[in-house]
Amino acid sequence: MNIRTAFIAEDEPLAREALHDSVNTRPELKLIGEADNGRSALEQINHLRPEVVFMDIQMPEMTGLEVIKRLDYQPEIIFTTAYDQYAVAAFELNALDYLLKPFSRERFDAAVDRLLESHTGHTVSQEPRQTQLTQALEQVGQQLPARLDRILVRDRGHIFPVNTQQIAYLKSDAKYTAIYVDGKTFLVRLGISELADRLDPSRFVRIHRSVLVNLDFVESMKTDEQSQLQLQMRDGSVLVANREASKMLRDMAI
């Protein structure tokens, strides 16, 4: 069996862990490294020289597209992103596949199968590679994530739905995203970026890298000494928006 070395570049801890688990289910792949930002990814990939890279696009310090352009060799690239608008750029960079998060295990396996059918390590003509990516991009349109109206959560051995309109705010850490609703907190194994892309943008605003707020549950806002907005929530919590989000919220005020 021909084993391909693999590398994961993904800044979301939950998404990186899911990719790690997915790669380990395929005996044809051997994971040799991971990075949580673009600059680290560039250095490690050039040093380790994996045959395939699972590359997120929006990462700190350097985007996945910038990383690919600066590599000193050409591995097989499978982009993993929550943003379908980068599909054309991925096509131009000859990516092998384009997985739109959140993707299923079946979709991941299809990408790996396409990888195993490709001629890794050899010069590949432009036309066959473009045909491969065209097939992948056709699937992108079929897997656009739908708007979330409810989320299934677990609590003391039970599973029940939470209406997303009733969520006051969400906070993420290295392992989970905490959902705050009706004075209760529920933990889900979904990255906050994945949730943000599927929640109603007219209600939910990302005020920090790890915090998403439902504006319907904001009591008031005031500026602190660092010119950042403090959001007083109806449940008594106080959340601080970063400078970019603070400016955006001020601009929204009539």
Keywords summarizing the entry:
8 helices; alpha/beta; five-stranded antiparallel beta sheet; five-stranded parallel beta sheet; 2 domains; OB fold (Dihydrolipoamide Acetyltransferase, E2P); globular; Rossmann fold; 254 residues
Write the layout of secondary structure elements.
Elements: E1 4-9, H1 13-24, E2 29-35, H2 38-48, E3 52-55, H3 64-70, E4 76-81, H4 87-92, E5 97-100, H5 105-117, H6 126-140, E6 150-155, E7 158-163, E8 167-172, E9 177-181, E10 184-188, H7 192-196, E11 204-208, E12 211-214, E13 218-223, E14 229-233, E15 238-240, H8 243-252
Parallel strand pairs: 1-2, 1-3, 3-4, 4-5
Antiparallel strand pairs: 6-7, 8-9, 8-12, 9-10, 11-12, 13-14, 14-15
3D architecture notes:
With 254 residues, the chain is of the alpha/beta class. The protein has two domains: 4-140, Rossmann fold; 150-252, LytTr DNA-binding domain (OB fold (Dihydrolipoamide Acetyltransferase, E2P)). The protein is built from eight helices and 15 strands. The strands form four sheets. Strands 2-1-3-4-5 form a five-stranded parallel sheet, sandwiched between helices. A five-stranded antiparallel sheet has the order 10-9-8-12-11. Strand 1, helix 1 and strand 2 form a beta-alpha-beta unit. The longest helix has 15 residues, at 126-140. The protein is globular and about 60 Å long. The relative contact order is 0.10. Mean pLDDT is 82; it is low at 120-127 and 140-144.
Compact overview of the structure:
This protein is an alpha/beta fold and 254 residues long. The protein has helices at residues 13-24, 38-48, 64-70, 87-92, 105-117, 126-140, 192-196, 243-252; strands at 4-9, 29-35, 52-55, 76-81, 97-100, 150-155, 158-163, 167-172, 177-181, 184-188, 204-208, 211-214, 218-223, 229-233, 238-240.
